[in-house]
Specification:
Layout (H helix, E strand, L loop, with lengths): L1 E2 L11 E2 L10 H14 L4 E7 L5 E2 L2 H8 L4 E7 L2 E6 L5 E5 L4 E6 L9 E9 L2 E9 L5 E5 L1 H9 L11 H9 L5 H5 L10 H10 L13 H20 L40 E5 L2 E5 L6
The structure holds zinc ion.
Zinc ion (ZN) binds next to loops.
């Protein structure tokens, strides 16, 4: 196991996996975090918002503080990879996007510091204190306060959500309208929300479709099958609490286990679990793409 450089004093070095892949949080990972937060934090009051990296707080730290300090958390919702915090008696919403390496951790205030913490929300309820810590090595993630209208616009710019309003007919239309490779279409957040590299690779393997296949050229029965296996693989990801390498963790800092169930992702050179052929890797849309050349033609 090679070790990456740590660029801040006293933090654990990042482990780089042998496999040439990097996991980013996708729909199942964000849903796992959402479920964790929903169990624990509704009813907590926001006492303060602190940051060590202003550009991750949008539009500004002042706006975020004015929008949410003193408010009580009502619930946590999600669309695709976007996490949405709603408050009681408030028209403001707080949005989190983890992007590449973000984590959201619920901690007791006495819990030791988490490396790369960029934003801390201090919370309290009936004398109990908690911190919601947003850590992010790469700093592409963000937290943002938005009003009703702005949230509507943001959600409208995203494609339908596979576990909510993406139905079979809508899915067929999306694929039939594009001449791009099917894998690129699956991962286009403006067309479908929440599907990233891991789950697109796995779904295409289960559907026996080559990732480069031109989207509008796939037979209808195969498109239908792809829809069902995509939903299935996303639900499986949630069941195993997401896929973890050195980035994604749940809201308690624990790893998910879906990586132990990958059929193609990150398995270049290993044997196909169905036919024994070697799994191949190609670049597609600048992302490592894994498939079985015999099963996925
Ligand atoms: Zn195969």
């Amino acid at each position: 196991m090679r070790r990456g450089k740590s660029n801040e004093k006293g933090v654990e070095p990042l482990e780089r996996p042998e496999r040439e892949v990097n996991f980013m949080p996708e729909l199942p990972e964000v849903e796992t975090i959402r479920q964790d937060l929903e169990k624990e934090l509704p009813g907590f009051l926001i006492d303060s918002v602190q940051t060590t990296f202003l550009p991750m707080v949008k539009p500004t730290l002042t706006t975020v503080r004015e929008g949410i300090v003193g408010k009580t958390i009502k619930d946590f919702k999600r669309k695709g990879k976007l996490l949405i915090v709603n408050f009681r008696n408030s028209t403001k919403h707080l949005l989190f996007h983890l992007k590449m390496t973000g984590r959201l951790l619920v901690r007791d205030e006495k819990h030791k510091q988490d490396p790369f913490t960029r934003v801390i929300l201090k919370l309290s309820r009936n004398g109990k204190s908690r911190e919601l810590r947003f850590t992010d090595v790469r700093k592409f993630g963000f937290v943002k306060v938005a009003g009703e209208e702005e949230l509507k616009k943001i959600l409208a710019a995203m494609g339908p959500e596979p576990l909510d309003d993406l139905n079979l007919e809508g899915f067929k239309k999306i694929l039939q309208k594009s001449r791009r490779p099917v894998k690129v279409v699956l991962m286009d957040q403006g067309l479908i929300s929440g599907v990233g590299n891991i789950y697109a690779n796995e779904a295409l393997f289960l559907a026996k479709i080559h990732p480069r296949t031109q989207s509008d050229k796939i037979a209808v029965e195969k498109v239908e099958n792809l829809y069902f296996v995509l939903i299935k693989v996303l639900k499986e990801g949630i069941k195993y609490r997401g896929a973890s390498d050195n980035t994604y963790r749940d809201a308690h800092g624990e790893k998910g286990h879906f990586q132990e169930h990958f059929k193609v992702y990150g398995r270049k050179g290993e044997k196909c679990l169905v036919c024994g052929e070697q799994i191949k890797r190609i670049e597609l849309g600048q992302r490592g793409t894994f498939f079985c050349p015999r099963c996925q033609k």
